[in-house]
Amino acid sequence: MQNSKTIIVSLFSLLCIALSCKKYTVPVDSNRSTNFVDEIRASDDFSWATSKSLNPQITFEGDFATQFLVLEILDKNYNRIQKFFKPSTVSSLRLDKQISARTDSAYLFCNKANIFLPFSTDNENIVVRNSTELSRPLPQPNASESTSSRKSSCNPSNCDRIINSSSGDIIVGKREDICINSSFSGSIKFTDQGSVTICANVALTNLTVNGSKGAIIIINDGGRLSASNLNINEKTKIINHGIVELAANLNLSAEVENYGSWTNSGSLNLNSSGEIQNFANASMSFSGGGNVIGNLSNAGRLIFSGNVNLNNSGKIENFCSLEIAGNLISNGELYNSSYIDITGNCIYNSGSLINFEDKAITHNGSLTINGGKFDMGSGTGVGVFVVANNTTINSGIDIYKGFLDICDNNGIETNNASTADKAQIKECATTVLKDACVLKGIESSTDPDGDDDDDGVSNGNDDKKGDKDVAAIFNYPSTGYAYRAYEDLWPSRGDYDFNDLVLKYKVEFEANSKNEITGANFEITINAIGAGHLNGIGIQFLEKTGDSYTRYAGSIYENLQGASIDGSDPSVALITSNIFEYLGSEVYKNDGQGPDGDPVTINVEIDFTKGAKIDASSVIPDIFMFRFENRGLEVHLPGIPPTNAATSSLFNTKEDQSEIKGWYRTKDNFPWGMEIHGVDGFLHPRSRVAINAAYPEFTNWVNSDGTQNTDWYLNPVIGLVY
């Protein structure tokens, strides 16, 4: 926190003071009604909010359930809505955040655990399974052959012919779609194109593919394909959602998409026309090694129990876990964004093109770099190589982007790299944490991504390194600003021009590793003061649960800058009791009927006590208005509870029906305050111009219960707004 209060006041000269200026009137279209009550019909449960609740229940399964995770909720433009931490002892948690009502989708993101999970903001439940989706996902199949369209059942409506016999020879006619619904042993022959969907146990003795374009074989998630010897040519595509078990070497010139389990009792020979995509949450294993001439992409778990040769025309892309119980000899292109484990010798020759994302890691028995180009993702990116035995670096190495961090317990035994390349080689300087894909990490006491402040969050995931009370920083709203517009005549009804007090604000929250708010930095701009009364401004904090709010009460402030603790309620931070007095000679109204001026911006900085226990996942800031000469007369947004300083006898008098309708609502469910959420600008109505006259779409927004014209505040009548 900074230790100084900052108030930015524009330098302008007022032509007159607030109470002696000439009144300015704005002509109103005589054909347009300005009577708020006549046009508006608000249902009893209408919230008046331009935001909506994002309150998913997030459940973690598998390895994720017992891991400490650093998570973020991102909007569809990848702006952070919330950063939070999942303890290793918690497998389920709930958030409750306010987001723009126009936001229909978001993402749950965790870089280290390779989670990048899209979800609808209308969904209440999110389930995170191992390798749910990658932070850099593999390309999906073509639309005509996508997971959803090809993961078909063996329903008769999906099949030209159903095979129920237990054995024999199946001949697939041209463009014929065949389904195997029961256990079968025999051969399959394609005449030209066509498909076979396997929904049972199939023991394939022979596969023949004729014709110019080949065939598609789909193993459904309830299907199993086994074969003793299978050569798959370039005319064929296999899509597996179930189980594939091959008892011999696999000679592959075709395409394979694996979403399930694939085991091979033998080696892989991936020819130049062959392509394998092993998708997230899928597994492939070979009891032998591999010879890669084509393209091999892995987003799940891929295991070789022998040596792997990556030829000069071959390409391996690894997004999760690749394990080689032998040597890797590379003459081709290797991309790694996560974890590779090589128990033998890893040899990079001159034809190699090695591309690692920052902090991608390989564990090696021994490491020999004879040559090749090394690209570590960016100028500051680091590829991590952990070596159990010997490291040899010869003069052919070319590190043209980023750094190699080689962690050999015995040090680098031989380093013949050029002086320039040596400058781009680190030793044991990086920490890579274990996660669902990274089966073995590495820790270093010299790592800039250690945990300097000992708060349980590594430096790389810590938004404020060196401060154990701050590990996450996020904004409310997540983008732009929020605008609050008030009527100040409560409990009487106002004229609904909503310019008695107009505030533009945003809050930067700071939270610790326990998801407790430890600090809040407010930027509040007073855009307009159209009130006839003298009013003050205060701040309280609420916990939101569904549609209800609970106040954080008691002595929750450790330190305040730009505000003071309210003597009537210690949970309230008072900015001022009299806005006009606060502005002094720079007073303005900005409502079209008084002096104009550049809005004043106030910065308020708050440190909370350790006992405040403000939940970062559901905190809502409430900036409210109160009467200077009557502190107990407060005005809040509808549904927001008053502070302990409010005068209870004022409720349910005059137009207020809080007891029946909920806090700060009239009998017609009209409010005294509104918030425009997450926008860059809002033009408030001029004096005595009802908001539904200034914004014609406002009426339909209210009358439709907020389902229509959700961006009404972007379309004003220019002559009626300030």
UniProtKB/TrEMBL annotation:
Checking InterPro entries in the record gives: DUF4842, LruC_dom
* Region of interest: Disordered: 131-159, 444-464
PROSITE patterns attached here? PROKAR_LIPOPROTEIN
Q: From the record, what ranges are coiled-coil?
A: none
* Ranges of biased composition (kind: Acidic residues): 446-456
- In what residue span(s) does the DUF4842 domain sit? 515-713
Q: Which Pfam families match?
A: DUF4842
**What are the Polar residues biased-composition ranges?**
141-159
Q: What is this protein called in UniProt?
A: LruC domain-containing protein
List the taxonomic lineage. Answer: Bacteria, Pseudomonadati, Bacteroidota, Flavobacteriia, Flavobacteriales
